[in-house]
Write a structure and sequence with these properties.
The complex is a heterodimer.
Chain A lengths: L11 E10 L2 E11 L4 E5 L6 H9 L4 E8 L2 E2 L5 H6 L2 E4 L11 H8 L8 H11 L16 H13 L5 E5 L7 H17 L3 E5 L3 H7 L2 E6 L2 E6 L1 H5 L2 H7 L8
Parallel strand pairs in A: 3-8, 3-9, 6-7, 7-8
Antiparallel strand pairs in A: 1-2, 1-4, 4-5, 9-10
Helix pairs in contact in A: 3-5
Chain B lengths: L1 H31 L6 H18 L4 H29 L4 H23 L13 E4 L2 E4 H23 L1 H11 L1 H6 L4 H27 L10 H12 L4 H21 L5 H15 L12
Antiparallel strand pairs in B: 1-2
Helix pairs in contact in B: 1-5, 1-8, 1-9, 1-10, 2-3, 2-4, 2-8, 3-4, 3-8, 5-6, 6-8, 9-10, 9-11, 10-11
Classes of the chains: A alpha/beta, B mainly alpha.
The complex binds adenosine-5'-diphosphate and magnesium ion (MG).
Chain lengths: 249, 291
Amino acid sequence: MSGDLSTPGQILRATGLSAGYDGRAIVHDVSIEATPGKVVSIVGPNGSGKSTLLKSLVGVVPVLGGTVNVGDADITNMTPERVATLGVGYVPQIDDVFPPLTVKENLDIGGYLLPRHEVGARIEAVLEFFPRLKTMMSRRAGKLSGGERKMLAMGRVLMLRPSVLVLDEPTANLAPLVATQLLEEYIRGFAEKGSTVLLVEQRAKAALRVSDWTCVLGGGRVVLEGPPSDLENNPIFVESFLGGGAPRR
Amino acid sequence: MSVFLSSLGFGLITAAVLALATVGFTMQFAVTNVLNLAYGSVMINSAFVTYFLNVHTRLNAWVALGGGVATGAIVSYLINRFIFTPFQRRNLPPITIVMVALGVDLCGTFGLQAIVGGSYFSFRQSPGRLWHFWGMYFSTLQLTIIGIAVVVLALVHWLLKYTRLGKAMRATSANMNLARNSGVRTQMVISTTWIISGALCGLAGTVFAMDTGVFDATSAQLYIVLLLAAMFLGGPGEPYGAMLGAVTIGVATEVSAGFINPQYKEVIAFVVLIGMLMFRPYGIFGKEKTL
Ligand SMILES: Nc1ncnc2c1ncn2[C@@H]1O[C@H](COP(=O)(O)OP(=O)(O)O)[C@@H](O)[C@H]1O
Ligand SMILES: [Mg+2]
């Protein structure tokens, strides 16, 4: 069913990346790679630069040093509208929908780059995936609940069948059950279908559970990274993110 | 009663002109974040182009009107391209752009005055026969103006609601970065918005001058006051609010002018605005700045 929601993968790679606002770097010398069929997650305390890193990958925040590649293409400092044409779907942490537009219109904008005659069929495919949205097509996005809104935000990027999904804390403010479903069913599902997923997730435990690789960001740098099984047994990681004590899952 | 009805008639005409003007004005604010106080001077300059084409080169009135509309569109595009955009790029506070717009307005108005002089002008058109409905009188010209407004506002509605461009405009207004992430070339959308809203501005300026009958280079100088009142009444950046605000302000100013001194039109507009803002601080439709 979700087979045609995304296109199998391209590598998303940042090399020695520095990025920030007004010429001042917030993210320093970060190298990170997300590959098809895998979920790579980024964890780290508030203000450690996770959102800034993602924004610099998709062209919203200027890259001050280093490079960003998608597949063979160098997308360093490419405009966001051109990054979108390369199959990178980005869901921001906040302001992830167009509140005054209806659900249908949000999806239409998601399909802005598609040939006109394909939009209807794509909307059908997205609704198939998020059936809850079916009943609220003419409601304004600003009036949705947190969970519905996130589904719409994800639905918007799925309109273009992205090969790379860049998701900034998709589970923030969601009820625990909805959050788990989103991560373990939908997001994990994309990777299993061959897409590339780069995910920022506040809750370290949940991040480890869905990821193939996790990077820990601190002060704008990668301070620790590895597969979940390593991090779970890393005393520093356990101490700072899993609340001390024995590793739990 | 008859004073009331005849001034209500005037109100509907004023409202039609004001609605055309306010919709363009509010679109500029919604999509591009510029409170374009130079709007009135673009209106009157466009009206003078129509006048020149119609009266001096003796072009058909509709063709001349097309010239006025094109003038509004082109001049607005150029003002944004060469004045507002460079200032916005520098990340200056919005008040700076407002001051710049005010300067452009003065240059536009007095530049025009330098060319056409201080005298009064009027279209040679006869207003046509008088029509009488429900105690209100309209000339053929006035009915034409109301007709133009209804048709054009319906087109604006269709544009915003049903076209790809219109949705892109609303998306850009609501969340520019997200629109870009979806592949919308927002710079193009913004330029197009200036052209469309500028065309509305040129159209409004021309029908304003035709409706006024006698006009000079400074005739639209106080019009910005009515525009602001109508826009804030409906909720800034809300095109449907702008239409409703324009009708309210248009009718309120003309009906009150039937009973008190017509010189106080702008004052009445603000009394209505302030009275309403006490109850709905974001305007009739406004919640957030949206299109
Ligand atoms: N638009 C901005 N302009 C300037 N500084 C910003 C902006 N957004 C975020 N920052 C700063 O960048 C740092 C990292 O923020 P962010 O990337 O949002 O962290 P995280 O997503 O890890 O919580 C913070 O110190 C924040 O103050
Ligand atoms: Mg963040």
